[in-house]
Structure to design on (876 residues):
């Protein structure tokens, strides 16, 4: 089994991620986050928000409607230019990505393929009671446009000075013809992104700054530097709006492909929206009174790809000692950074006996107020440690038959497997301290 | 101005919520959350998740794709029955809700109205390269179906015993013909919901339990008991799947209307999905080995409506003392529960002077690591207090010219306007303590 298969199986088995609409045979490349995946994803999403929005004085967030006025997508260029080249089979009408077909005949029925045509990636829908061109609208194909369209309203409400950013997180939709590789490419996915507004003369400085911040974020997520690469996108290859773009590419088991992006979008979007809407989108310099359109640096973080990469990085197979002295057996351990792990602590009473439960349960109730905790009293302690290793729980607390005598429990570290005897009264502080060291 | 206008104006002015796609003249009843509204909404969403998922041992979360297999919506009855009755004008083809028209002629052009027809509320879109019946899919019209469809996968991954729940939060879409009243009814909105799986014999007990929990949540959100009502939905009025439904209705300025819902959905959904998919959806009793379909209690919380009600409840106009001894002037104050307030603390140096900034800035930097904080050094201190009152900041910390001498600051309470002199070294603990008392 290659690493992707291992991750996909573990994700399904332990409730991280499973196929969407599975009981109906699935829906091509749609995935649902299960109990553990939902926590993992939420931890990443919240940590990003804390780090890039709440802790910073130069960033504010917005949370916009997914369906915007179709005029937004006309002005942004998406209606015209957000497309993939496709060819259609003249016989069965199946369509394929023109840049990905290997032969002249239809891979489905062997029929003759037609000429290459552009296929727009925006999902269409209809608002209101009729289904015609007038009521047609699009599901957003990126987060960015809302941050441009709302720029004047945000500016008026919060009166920030340049440089400052507007951040957003949420679902976007792209009608990809060839999605695939688990959660790497899907038709709907979550992005985390900000538009950072700067003076044109300073764009290079801010571009470099945000590239460094992206490195720091990846390190914070436990992604090793030797696993990803900064790829400068050349002239002619960049999106229509960008003067400089960097892709952060990761070495997935299926090849080196995009993880994050960093683009200098110039004042392209604000200018287009100003022209198309007739509304003044300019920033007024509070000192000089000058009015001008800020330029934009845009770091984009795929949330689902972050989850995928976090799982790939965390996955380890190791030899671990068994209960038998000197014996070893393999263990699978997900070495998530502790802030990211779905459960922080598992409480494991050595047996189901009442005398252990009456100590373990109150401890569980107390710790659960602060941390996601698991409680497991089934099977052998060795098997339970393996289960917690496999879902990346940083600490296991074992309540045993000594506990009633010494008022202490055993705390086991996921990565080192070292065990420490800690007084019950000190457990909360011990865990808190371990979890703050990120 | 009535209260709704006041709230809408304040929401726009202070960046809580503003009209979506505004620069393009807006998109009917679409709203974007601005910087403060995003924080308010996120605080409510996260607190709900903490309280109902993370703190509970009988609840797990999922985060599903918005687009599911169309078979899901056929099995659930939505394709056939999720509709509003409409009439169409024979002349201009405008459509109206049949149960909301007041006269026989078209309200737009005066033309003759046709016969009543059912109009489905599911938003349609197309997956893949062709736009035909085969590729047609729907945006989810409720969260619930994913929790039913994923029930077997969740059960297998987490092995919970009855009773237990699956929770979810996220965007749903309903193609309403007459949305309106600010964020009360919009075409896309966020829900927070769980399906609580129980034994059929125990449904009444759990129904009552969750009704009490909904009361407790509303109290936690600062909603006064005299402002909302429990409305029992009678036979014939309930949704097609429900044997008992309660609406929690709130007295909005525009009338008494739905806020939350609590429904006993029986085993309707699991049974339908089992029949339609051919997959075994049953739960196996771990003691007896009996296999059966659990019954379902479903509490539904509208997130946007919670935001709206929280704003309505928080809004107060009061007489407040001015800087002049004995003088009073009106103040607008948003008395959000402190856990919900966008900013927890505002740091207000009395003037822009360097000697104050050098104390205020490190304090800001320190507190910001734990709480969303604002920093404001513009205009008079009285005006700044008013600004913070208007956005509901529980505590203002004033750094003044005494601070350098006594190493203390003034902490002002939003609701009582009482001021206390606190040593800088004690500020962090003082705030932490005040904020834990919810």
């Amino acid at each position: 089994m290659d690493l992707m298969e291992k991750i996909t199986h573990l994700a399904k088995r332990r409730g991280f991620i499973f196929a969407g609409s599975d009981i109906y045979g699935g829906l091509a490349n749609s995935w649902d986050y299960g109990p553990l995946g939902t926590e993992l994803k939420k931890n990443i999403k919240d940590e990003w928000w804390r780090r890039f929005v709440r802790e910073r004085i130069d960033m504010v967030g917005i949370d916009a409607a997914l369906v915007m006025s179709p005029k937004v997508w006309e002005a942004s260029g998406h209606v015209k230019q957000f497309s993939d080249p496709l060819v259609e089979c003249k016989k069965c009408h199946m369509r394929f990505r023109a840049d990905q077909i290997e032969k002249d005949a239809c891979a489905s029925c062997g029929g003759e393929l037609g000429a290459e045509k552009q296929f727009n990636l925006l999902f269409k829908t209809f608002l209101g009671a009729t289904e015609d061109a007038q009521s047609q609208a699009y599901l957003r194909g990126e987060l960015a446009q809302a941050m441009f369209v709302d720029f004047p309203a945000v500016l008026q409400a919060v009166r920030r000075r340049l440089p400052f950013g507007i951040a957003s997180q949420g679902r976007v939709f792209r009608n990809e013809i060839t999605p695939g590789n688990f959660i790497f490419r899907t038709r709907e996915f979550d992005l985390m992104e900000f538009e950072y507004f700067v003076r044109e003369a300073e764009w290079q400085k801010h571009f470099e700054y945000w590239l460094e911040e992206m490195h720091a974020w990846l390190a914070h997520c436990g992604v090793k530097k030797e696993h990803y690469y900064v790829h400068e996108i050349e002239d002619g290859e960049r999106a229509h709006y960008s003067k400089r773009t960097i892709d952060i590419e990761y070495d997935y088991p299926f090849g080196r492909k995009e993880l994050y992006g960093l683009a200098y979008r110039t004042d392209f979007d604000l200018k287009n929206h100003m022209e198309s809407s007739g509304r003044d989108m300019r920033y007024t310099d509070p000192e000089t009174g000058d009015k001008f359109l800020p330029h934009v640096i845009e770091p984009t973080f795929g949330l689902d790809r972050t989850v995928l990469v976090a799982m790939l990085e965390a996955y380890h197979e190791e030899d671990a000692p068994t209960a038998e002295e000197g014996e070893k057996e393999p263990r699978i351990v997900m070495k998530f950074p502790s802030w990211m792990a779905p459960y922080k602590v598992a409480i494991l009473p050595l047996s189901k006996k009442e005398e252990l439960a009456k100590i373990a349960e109150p401890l569980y109730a107390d710790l659960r107020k602060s941390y996601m905790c698991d409680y497991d009293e089934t099977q052998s302690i060795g098997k339970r440690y393996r289960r917690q290793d496999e879902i990346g729980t940083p600490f296991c607390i074992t309540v045993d038959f000594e506990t009633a005598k010494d008022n202490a429990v055993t705390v086991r570290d996921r990565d080192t497997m070292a065990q420490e005897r800690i007084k019950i009264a000190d457990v909360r502080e011990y865990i808190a301290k371990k979890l703050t060291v990120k």
In short: The first helix of chain A runs from residue 3 to 13.
